[in-house]
Amino acid sequence: MVTITPLISSSNTQESTSSTSPQNTDVVIDGADLVNGRKYMVMYCCSYGGADFTDEIEVQIEHGSTIIAKSAERGDSTGTPESSRTKSLNGFYIITGDATSALRIKIRCATTGATCYIGGKTLIAIPLHQLTEGSEYWQSTQNGDAAEVSNAATDFSTNLITLTSTLPAADFLVLMSAEISPGSVLTAAPSKCRFVVDGVNQKLDYQTKGKMQTIEFGWISYSYAQIKTLGFGSRIFKIDIASETGTRTDGRRGRIILLKKSVFDQMISLASTTETTSTSTTYVDFLSQSYTPNQQEHVVIIGNTALWAANTSRSAMIRLRNDTDGTNFSDQTSVFSSSADDDRHAITAFGCEQISTAKTYKLQFKGESPSPSSHVDETDLIMWGLTKAPVVLQPVLGDDRGTFVQIGPSGLEI
């Protein structure tokens, strides 16, 4: 069987800076490891915060000189660790390696004299050269700091990005992400994001209220991950955005990526559609799932949920954990609630490691003191083994010459 070897860089160490220019963090994938001309699907996440309510923080993911993701928000004067005080940047993108350009997470203070923090940093780059686009994976992505769509109305009639494709009847890992701006400052009503498959809204209508002092920095990421069973035919995947009031919400960096589940030896998930609340300031278990590999392989762990804190100016946090070995991934992936009634944030945490024996993986969450009240809803915990499914030789019925056809993950291949 074909095994896929990802590139991984991850750190739960909190870092800080007062620089107004982007600073490197301790998470980087060296450019020499990104093979020239080879496509990689990148999964990224980090949480960030500032030392004070007036501090504005900006984080970005760079591939060489190209920014492939960027988010910014305002800090807060309370909360531990400081990197959990604001928001997180998380999502997906496909890059092409050039054997030179590194993949990095960076942070800067948009406010002079501020102190800004970053934690829960993860980069995973999965090579795609062993997969066939159009039969094993599909993608439609945008990139750029400028808004792709602006001044969205209140009825979700503004489409950020669409992927339409004729697909076989199968299960698919559906990944979507976007960056949304409230389009105004401080008093802005919530901006909204909706993920749609074949006209059906997925999970929740997500929303969050911006609290930036300067319009140009107020971009917030939303992300979605779920295994979907789809019938044969033309399928439409969309990311739509809306404003709570007026026409002020903008959108950019819409990404939709599909992977056919049967291409891989194993891909399993556990889901919950129940809203769950915790008043704990230490991590509590929410979803737990065992994964037993059939060979030594890398496994990607994905935790996607709606996350919010019911108390204004408090944070809620999630992380992924290998409970068998006591290893934590994407610790303090957080959201800050600027309004207890308005924030329902779509957030994803990632982990990846090589294993050869069974492991139990958990998605955990907690709140920030004082008066913690963290909520999760519409949650998926996904384990994706990076080994391709075996090819099967099937005899041709009625053929006495001993002819075989090769049946692979994508169907008839020879």
As a whole number of angstroms, the C-alpha radius of gyration is 21 Å
- Helix/strand/pairing category: mainly beta
| Main pleated-sheet profile | 5 strands, antiparallel
Q: What's the total count of β strands?
A: 30
Number of helices: 0
Q: What do these coordinates show?
A:
The protein is mainly β. The protein has a domain of 125 residues: Jelly Rolls. It is built from no helices and 30 strands. Strands 1, 2, 4, 7 and 9 form a 5-stranded antiparallel sheet that branches. Strands 10, 11, 13, 16 and 18 form a 5-stranded antiparallel sheet that branches. Strands 19, 20, 22, 25 and 27 form a 5-stranded antiparallel sheet that branches.
List the helices and strands and how they pair.
Elements: E1 7-11, E2 15-17, E3 23-29, E4 39-50, E5 56-63, E6 66-74, E7 87-96, E8 103-109, E9 116-127, E10 137-141, E11 149-152, E12 158-167, E13 170-181, E14 191-197, E15 200-208, E16 220-230, E17 233-243, E18 249-260, E19 267-272, E20 276-278, E21 284-291, E22 297-309, E23 314-322, E24 327-337, E25 345-355, E26 359-367, E27 374-385, E28 392-395, E29 404-408, E30 411-412
Antiparallel strand pairs: 1-9, 2-9, 3-8, 4-7, 4-9, 5-6, 5-8, 10-18, 11-18, 12-17, 13-16, 13-18, 14-15, 14-17, 19-27, 20-27, 21-26, 22-25, 22-27, 23-24, 23-26, 28-29, 29-30
